[in-house]
Amino acid sequence: MLTELKVPERLLLGPGPANVDPRVLRAMATPVIGHLDPAFIRVMDETIQYLRQVWRTQNRLTVPLSATGSGGMEAVMVNLLEPGDEVVVGICGLFGQRMADVAARAGARVRTVEAPWGRPLDPEQFEKALRERPAKVVAFVHGETSTGVLQPVEPIVEIARRYGALVVADCVTSLGSVPVEVDRWGLDAAYSCSQKGLGAPPGMAPVTFSERALEVIRSRKTKVQSWYLDLNLLMGYWSGETVTERVYHHTAPIAMIYALREALRIVLEEGLENRWERIRRVHEAFVAGIEAMGLEMLVEKPYRLAPLNTVKVPPGVDAAAVQRRLLEMDIEIAGGFGPLKGQIWRIGLMGYNAQPKNVFTVLSALEMALREQGYPVSPGLGPAAAAAALKG
Ligand SMILES: Cc1ncc(COP(=O)(O)O)c(C=O)c1O
Asked: How many A from CA of 245 to the centre of ligand 1?
Protein backbone atom coordinates (compact mmCIF):
# COMPACT_ATOMS: atom_id res chain seq x y z
CA MET A 1 0.00 0.00 0.00
CA LEU A 2 1.50 3.32 -1.06
CA THR A 3 0.35 5.76 1.58
CA GLU A 4 0.08 9.48 1.10
CA LEU A 5 2.74 11.66 2.76
CA LYS A 6 1.31 12.75 6.07
CA VAL A 7 3.02 14.62 8.89
CA PRO A 8 1.56 16.27 11.99
CA GLU A 9 0.98 20.02 12.00
CA ARG A 10 3.42 21.30 14.59
CA LEU A 11 4.13 24.65 16.13
CA LEU A 12 7.90 24.80 15.65
CA LEU A 13 9.27 26.67 18.66
CA GLY A 14 12.67 25.00 18.78
CA PRO A 15 15.96 26.33 17.40
CA GLY A 16 14.75 25.98 13.80
CA PRO A 17 13.30 25.27 11.39
CA ALA A 18 10.56 27.66 12.40
CA ASN A 19 7.14 27.51 10.77
CA VAL A 20 7.16 28.71 7.19
CA ASP A 21 5.13 31.76 6.25
CA PRO A 22 2.18 30.55 4.09
CA ARG A 23 3.14 33.11 1.43
CA VAL A 24 6.49 31.35 1.11
CA LEU A 25 4.81 27.96 0.72
CA ARG A 26 2.63 29.41 -2.04
CA ALA A 27 5.68 30.84 -3.82
CA MET A 28 7.23 27.37 -3.80
CA ALA A 29 4.34 26.07 -5.88
CA THR A 30 5.30 28.48 -8.73
CA PRO A 31 6.13 26.48 -11.90
CA VAL A 32 9.73 25.36 -12.08
CA ILE A 33 11.64 26.86 -15.02
CA GLY A 34 15.21 26.30 -16.20
CA HIS A 35 18.07 27.60 -14.07
CA LEU A 36 19.52 29.52 -17.04
CA ASP A 37 16.16 30.83 -18.29
CA PRO A 38 16.33 34.64 -18.54
CA ALA A 39 13.17 34.80 -16.41
CA PHE A 40 14.89 32.80 -13.69
CA ILE A 41 18.05 34.92 -13.91
CA ARG A 42 15.83 37.90 -13.13
CA VAL A 43 14.52 36.05 -10.06
CA MET A 44 18.13 35.39 -9.01
CA ASP A 45 19.06 39.04 -9.42
CA GLU A 46 16.07 40.18 -7.37
CA THR A 47 16.93 37.65 -4.67
CA ILE A 48 20.48 39.04 -4.50
CA GLN A 49 19.19 42.61 -4.31
CA TYR A 50 16.84 41.71 -1.45
CA LEU A 51 19.62 39.79 0.28
CA ARG A 52 21.96 42.78 0.19
CA GLN A 53 19.28 44.84 1.92
CA VAL A 54 18.66 42.21 4.58
CA TRP A 55 22.41 41.83 5.23
CA ARG A 56 22.73 45.66 5.20
CA THR A 57 25.57 45.49 2.70
CA GLN A 58 26.68 46.71 -0.69
CA ASN A 59 28.92 43.62 -1.07
CA ARG A 60 28.97 42.47 -4.70
CA LEU A 61 29.53 38.89 -3.60
CA THR A 62 26.26 38.30 -1.79
CA VAL A 63 24.53 35.09 -2.86
CA PRO A 64 22.35 32.30 -1.49
CA LEU A 65 24.26 29.02 -1.64
CA SER A 66 22.41 25.78 -2.37
CA ALA A 67 23.13 24.46 1.11
CA THR A 68 22.05 24.70 4.72
CA GLY A 69 23.73 26.96 7.29
CA SER A 70 26.57 24.47 7.77
CA GLY A 71 27.23 24.66 4.02
CA GLY A 72 27.51 28.45 4.39
CA MET A 73 30.01 27.93 7.22
CA GLU A 74 32.00 25.47 5.14
CA ALA A 75 31.96 27.76 2.07
CA VAL A 76 33.32 30.69 4.07
CA MET A 77 36.09 28.64 5.65
CA VAL A 78 37.23 26.70 2.58
CA ASN A 79 37.29 29.80 0.39
CA LEU A 80 39.12 32.11 2.80
CA LEU A 81 41.58 29.61 4.26
CA GLU A 82 44.48 27.79 2.66
CA PRO A 83 46.54 25.05 4.31
CA GLY A 84 48.76 26.48 7.03
CA ASP A 85 46.79 29.73 7.46
CA GLU A 86 46.30 30.95 11.01
CA VAL A 87 42.76 31.37 12.32
CA VAL A 88 41.41 32.34 15.73
CA VAL A 89 37.95 30.92 16.47
CA GLY A 90 35.75 31.95 19.38
CA ILE A 91 34.03 29.05 21.12
CA CYS A 92 31.26 29.39 23.69
CA GLY A 93 28.94 26.72 22.35
CA LEU A 94 28.40 23.98 19.80
CA PHE A 95 28.52 26.13 16.66
CA GLY A 96 31.83 27.78 17.58
CA GLN A 97 33.18 24.24 17.99
CA ARG A 98 31.86 23.37 14.55
CA MET A 99 33.56 26.44 13.03
CA ALA A 100 36.89 25.39 14.53
CA ASP A 101 36.43 21.84 13.20
CA VAL A 102 35.58 23.07 9.70
CA ALA A 103 38.56 25.48 9.69
CA ALA A 104 40.92 22.69 10.80
CA ARG A 105 39.60 20.39 8.06
CA ALA A 106 40.42 23.18 5.58
CA GLY A 107 44.03 22.79 6.71
CA ALA A 108 44.19 25.94 8.84
CA ARG A 109 46.13 26.22 12.09
CA VAL A 110 43.30 26.83 14.53
CA ARG A 111 43.67 28.62 17.84
CA THR A 112 40.61 29.02 20.05
CA VAL A 113 39.37 31.66 22.43
CA GLU A 114 36.81 30.22 24.80
CA ALA A 115 34.07 31.20 27.23
CA PRO A 116 31.79 29.01 29.36
CA TRP A 117 28.58 27.92 27.61
CA GLY A 118 25.96 30.58 28.38
CA ARG A 119 28.45 33.46 28.49
CA PRO A 120 29.68 35.65 25.60
CA LEU A 121 33.29 35.66 24.38
CA ASP A 122 35.64 38.23 25.88
CA PRO A 123 37.12 40.47 23.11
CA GLU A 124 40.29 40.86 25.20
CA GLN A 125 40.99 37.18 24.63
CA PHE A 126 41.04 37.77 20.87
CA GLU A 127 43.47 40.65 21.42
CA LYS A 128 45.70 38.40 23.50
CA ALA A 129 45.68 35.66 20.85
CA LEU A 130 46.44 38.10 18.01
CA ARG A 131 49.18 39.84 19.97
CA GLU A 132 50.89 36.49 20.45
CA ARG A 133 50.70 35.67 16.74
CA PRO A 134 48.75 37.34 13.91
CA ALA A 135 46.01 35.45 12.09
CA LYS A 136 44.45 35.64 8.66
CA VAL A 137 40.92 35.14 9.98
CA VAL A 138 39.05 35.77 13.23
CA ALA A 139 35.76 33.85 13.41
CA PHE A 140 32.94 33.71 15.92
CA VAL A 141 29.21 32.98 16.21
CA HIS A 142 26.92 36.02 16.42
CA GLY A 143 23.89 34.14 17.77
CA GLU A 144 25.00 30.93 19.53
CA THR A 145 21.94 28.70 19.20
CA SER A 146 23.23 26.08 21.62
CA THR A 147 23.25 28.58 24.50
CA GLY A 148 21.07 31.57 23.52
CA VAL A 149 23.94 34.08 23.67
CA LEU A 150 24.08 37.10 21.35
CA GLN A 151 27.73 38.05 20.92
CA PRO A 152 28.52 41.79 20.72
CA VAL A 153 30.27 42.14 17.35
CA GLU A 154 31.92 45.54 17.14
CA PRO A 155 34.60 45.11 19.84
CA ILE A 156 35.85 41.93 18.15
CA VAL A 157 35.87 43.57 14.70
CA GLU A 158 37.82 46.55 16.05
CA ILE A 159 40.53 44.29 17.48
CA ALA A 160 40.69 42.02 14.42
CA ARG A 161 41.09 45.08 12.14
CA ARG A 162 43.95 46.43 14.22
CA TYR A 163 45.77 43.15 13.71
CA GLY A 164 44.88 42.93 10.01
CA ALA A 165 42.66 39.84 10.27
CA LEU A 166 39.53 39.18 8.22
CA VAL A 167 36.41 38.87 10.36
CA VAL A 168 33.88 36.04 9.88
CA ALA A 169 30.55 35.90 11.72
CA ASP A 170 28.04 33.04 11.88
CA CYS A 171 24.67 34.77 11.54
CA VAL A 172 22.59 31.61 11.18
CA THR A 173 20.27 32.48 14.08
CA SER A 174 20.64 36.25 13.99
CA LEU A 175 19.81 37.26 10.40
CA GLY A 176 16.23 38.47 10.06
CA SER A 177 15.65 38.47 13.82
CA VAL A 178 18.15 40.90 15.40
CA PRO A 179 20.29 43.70 13.92
CA VAL A 180 22.96 42.44 11.52
CA GLU A 181 24.92 45.30 9.92
CA VAL A 182 27.55 43.78 7.66
CA ASP A 183 28.95 47.05 6.23
CA ARG A 184 28.62 49.24 9.29
CA TRP A 185 30.27 46.63 11.49
CA GLY A 186 32.94 45.84 8.89
CA LEU A 187 32.40 42.09 8.67
CA ASP A 188 34.41 40.42 5.88
CA ALA A 189 32.29 37.31 5.57
CA ALA A 190 29.03 36.15 7.08
CA TYR A 191 26.67 33.26 6.46
CA SER A 192 23.15 32.38 7.49
CA CYS A 193 20.30 29.98 6.74
CA SER A 194 16.79 30.18 5.35
CA GLN A 195 14.86 28.34 8.07
CA LYS A 196 15.00 30.64 11.09
CA GLY A 197 14.70 34.43 11.02
CA LEU A 198 13.81 34.50 7.34
CA GLY A 199 10.83 32.14 7.60
CA ALA A 200 11.55 29.81 4.65
CA PRO A 201 12.26 26.06 4.75
CA PRO A 202 15.83 24.86 5.31
CA GLY A 203 17.96 24.57 2.18
CA MET A 204 19.54 27.92 1.34
CA ALA A 205 22.58 29.57 2.91
CA PRO A 206 22.86 33.29 2.24
CA VAL A 207 26.53 34.36 2.31
CA THR A 208 28.21 37.73 1.85
CA PHE A 209 31.89 38.64 1.36
CA SER A 210 33.58 42.06 1.51
CA GLU A 211 35.88 43.30 -1.27
CA ARG A 212 38.86 42.46 0.96
CA ALA A 213 37.61 38.90 1.35
CA LEU A 214 36.91 38.67 -2.38
CA GLU A 215 40.49 39.70 -3.12
CA VAL A 216 41.75 36.98 -0.77
CA ILE A 217 39.62 34.40 -2.59
CA ARG A 218 40.73 35.60 -6.03
CA SER A 219 44.41 35.56 -5.16
CA ARG A 220 44.57 32.10 -3.56
CA LYS A 221 47.70 30.07 -4.26
CA THR A 222 45.85 26.77 -4.00
CA LYS A 223 42.53 25.67 -5.43
CA VAL A 224 39.55 25.60 -3.06
CA GLN A 225 39.39 21.89 -2.20
CA SER A 226 35.60 21.83 -2.56
CA TRP A 227 34.47 22.09 -6.17
CA TYR A 228 30.83 22.61 -5.16
CA LEU A 229 31.54 25.49 -2.79
CA ASP A 230 34.35 27.19 -4.76
CA LEU A 231 33.19 30.79 -5.01
CA ASN A 232 35.54 31.50 -7.90
CA LEU A 233 33.37 29.07 -9.89
CA LEU A 234 30.05 30.00 -8.29
CA MET A 235 30.53 33.67 -9.11
CA GLY A 236 30.29 32.81 -12.81
CA TYR A 237 26.77 31.55 -12.25
CA TRP A 238 25.47 34.10 -9.77
CA SER A 239 27.28 37.27 -10.75
CA GLY A 240 27.68 37.47 -14.53
CA GLU A 241 26.97 41.01 -15.69
CA THR A 242 24.52 39.89 -18.36
CA VAL A 243 22.25 36.90 -18.78
CA THR A 244 24.45 35.43 -21.54
CA GLU A 245 27.51 35.63 -19.29
CA ARG A 246 26.03 33.28 -16.71
CA VAL A 247 27.85 29.99 -16.75
CA TYR A 248 26.31 26.72 -15.61
CA HIS A 249 27.78 25.54 -12.32
CA HIS A 250 25.12 23.38 -10.70
CA THR A 251 21.35 23.24 -11.07
CA ALA A 252 19.99 25.80 -8.64
CA PRO A 253 17.18 24.53 -6.39
CA ILE A 254 14.62 26.65 -8.24
CA ALA A 255 11.70 26.25 -5.82
CA MET A 256 13.93 27.06 -2.84
CA ILE A 257 15.04 30.27 -4.52
CA TYR A 258 11.40 31.19 -5.09
CA ALA A 259 10.90 30.52 -1.38
CA LEU A 260 13.86 32.62 -0.30
CA ARG A 261 12.89 35.48 -2.61
CA GLU A 262 9.39 35.58 -1.12
CA ALA A 263 10.72 35.27 2.44
CA LEU A 264 13.08 38.20 1.87
CA ARG A 265 10.30 40.23 0.27
CA ILE A 266 8.19 39.68 3.41
CA VAL A 267 11.10 40.80 5.62
CA LEU A 268 11.61 43.96 3.57
CA GLU A 269 7.87 44.73 3.43
CA GLU A 270 7.73 44.56 7.22
CA GLY A 271 10.94 46.60 7.45
CA LEU A 272 14.02 45.30 9.22
CA GLU A 273 13.72 47.66 12.18
CA ASN A 274 10.04 46.78 12.67
CA ARG A 275 10.89 43.09 12.52
CA TRP A 276 13.71 43.38 15.06
CA GLU A 277 11.37 45.34 17.33
CA ARG A 278 8.56 42.76 16.98
CA ILE A 279 10.94 39.94 17.88
CA ARG A 280 12.36 41.90 20.82
CA ARG A 281 8.86 42.61 22.21
CA VAL A 282 7.78 39.01 21.85
CA HIS A 283 11.01 37.84 23.53
CA GLU A 284 10.49 40.23 26.44
CA ALA A 285 6.91 39.09 26.89
CA PHE A 286 8.10 35.48 26.92
CA VAL A 287 10.77 36.25 29.52
CA ALA A 288 8.22 38.09 31.69
CA GLY A 289 6.03 34.96 31.57
CA ILE A 290 8.92 32.64 32.37
CA GLU A 291 10.02 34.74 35.35
CA ALA A 292 6.44 35.03 36.65
CA MET A 293 6.39 31.21 36.69
CA GLY A 294 9.46 31.25 38.93
CA LEU A 295 11.77 30.01 36.15
CA GLU A 296 15.10 31.57 35.18
CA MET A 297 16.78 32.42 31.91
CA LEU A 298 20.26 30.96 31.36
CA VAL A 299 21.81 34.08 29.83
CA GLU A 300 22.29 37.49 31.45
CA LYS A 301 19.92 40.10 30.03
CA PRO A 302 22.36 42.13 27.87
CA TYR A 303 23.52 39.02 26.01
CA ARG A 304 20.18 37.32 25.37
CA LEU A 305 19.53 36.20 21.80
CA ALA A 306 15.93 37.36 21.34
CA PRO A 307 14.82 34.72 18.79
CA LEU A 308 16.16 31.78 20.86
CA ASN A 309 15.32 31.72 24.54
CA THR A 310 17.22 29.43 26.88
CA VAL A 311 15.34 28.61 30.06
CA LYS A 312 16.89 26.77 33.01
CA VAL A 313 15.18 23.50 33.93
CA PRO A 314 14.17 23.74 37.61
CA PRO A 315 15.49 21.10 40.05
CA GLY A 316 13.45 17.90 40.12
CA VAL A 317 11.95 18.44 36.65
CA ASP A 318 12.71 16.00 33.82
CA ALA A 319 13.54 18.24 30.84
CA ALA A 320 13.00 15.57 28.20
CA ALA A 321 9.62 14.55 29.68
CA VAL A 322 8.43 18.18 29.42
CA GLN A 323 9.54 18.31 25.78
CA ARG A 324 7.67 15.07 25.07
CA ARG A 325 4.55 16.42 26.77
CA LEU A 326 4.66 19.56 24.64
CA LEU A 327 5.10 17.50 21.49
CA GLU A 328 1.91 15.63 22.39
CA MET A 329 0.31 19.09 22.18
CA ASP A 330 2.01 19.56 18.76
CA ILE A 331 4.49 22.08 20.13
CA GLU A 332 8.16 21.49 19.43
CA ILE A 333 10.77 22.91 21.78
CA ALA A 334 14.35 21.67 22.21
CA GLY A 335 16.70 20.71 25.00
CA GLY A 336 20.34 21.54 25.62
CA PHE A 337 23.51 20.08 24.09
CA GLY A 338 26.80 19.02 25.66
CA PRO A 339 27.30 20.60 29.09
CA LEU A 340 23.75 22.01 28.97
CA LYS A 341 22.05 18.67 28.28
CA GLY A 342 19.11 18.28 30.65
CA GLN A 343 19.87 21.76 32.06
CA ILE A 344 17.96 24.03 29.68
CA TRP A 345 15.12 24.23 27.20
CA ARG A 346 15.68 26.12 23.99
CA ILE A 347 12.53 27.91 22.90
CA GLY A 348 12.59 29.75 19.59
CA LEU A 349 10.33 32.68 18.78
CA MET A 350 11.94 33.58 15.50
CA GLY A 351 10.89 35.21 12.23
CA TYR A 352 7.31 34.35 11.34
CA ASN A 353 6.81 32.55 14.66
CA ALA A 354 7.55 35.59 16.82
CA GLN A 355 3.87 36.29 17.49
CA PRO A 356 2.13 37.00 20.82
CA LYS A 357 -0.27 34.08 20.33
CA ASN A 358 2.69 31.68 20.24
CA VAL A 359 4.01 33.14 23.51
CA PHE A 360 0.67 32.45 25.20
CA THR A 361 0.49 28.97 23.70
CA VAL A 362 3.95 27.86 24.74
CA LEU A 363 3.75 29.40 28.23
CA SER A 364 0.38 27.74 28.89
CA ALA A 365 1.64 24.37 27.65
CA LEU A 366 4.82 24.67 29.70
CA GLU A 367 2.81 25.53 32.80
CA MET A 368 0.63 22.48 32.29
CA ALA A 369 3.60 20.14 31.73
CA LEU A 370 5.41 21.52 34.79
CA ARG A 371 2.37 21.18 37.03
CA GLU A 372 2.01 17.56 35.92
CA GLN A 373 5.55 17.00 37.23
CA GLY A 374 4.69 18.56 40.56
CA TYR A 375 6.34 21.95 39.92
CA PRO A 376 4.29 24.53 41.81
CA VAL A 377 2.86 27.22 39.53
CA SER A 378 -0.62 28.72 39.51
CA PRO A 379 -2.39 28.29 36.16
CA GLY A 380 -2.36 31.39 34.00
CA LEU A 381 0.46 33.19 35.80
CA GLY A 382 2.92 33.06 32.90
CA PRO A 383 0.53 34.09 30.12
CA ALA A 384 -0.86 36.92 32.30
CA ALA A 385 2.64 38.34 32.86
CA ALA A 386 3.38 38.05 29.15
CA ALA A 387 0.14 39.86 28.31
CA ALA A 388 1.03 42.64 30.76
CA ALA A 389 4.51 42.98 29.20
CA LEU A 390 3.01 43.23 25.72
CA LYS A 391 0.68 46.00 26.88
CA GLY A 392 3.34 47.93 28.76
C1 LIG B 1 24.59 29.23 14.94
C2 LIG B 1 24.42 28.12 13.96
N3 LIG B 1 25.39 27.90 13.07
C4 LIG B 1 25.29 26.91 12.15
C5 LIG B 1 24.17 26.10 12.10
C6 LIG B 1 24.08 25.03 11.08
O7 LIG B 1 23.02 25.28 10.22
P8 LIG B 1 22.25 24.09 9.46
O9 LIG B 1 21.69 23.20 10.50
O10 LIG B 1 21.21 24.84 8.65
O11 LIG B 1 23.26 23.41 8.61
C12 LIG B 1 23.15 26.29 13.02
C13 LIG B 1 21.95 25.41 13.00
O14 LIG B 1 21.07 25.51 13.80
C15 LIG B 1 23.27 27.32 13.97
O16 LIG B 1 22.29 27.54 14.86
From this structure: 33
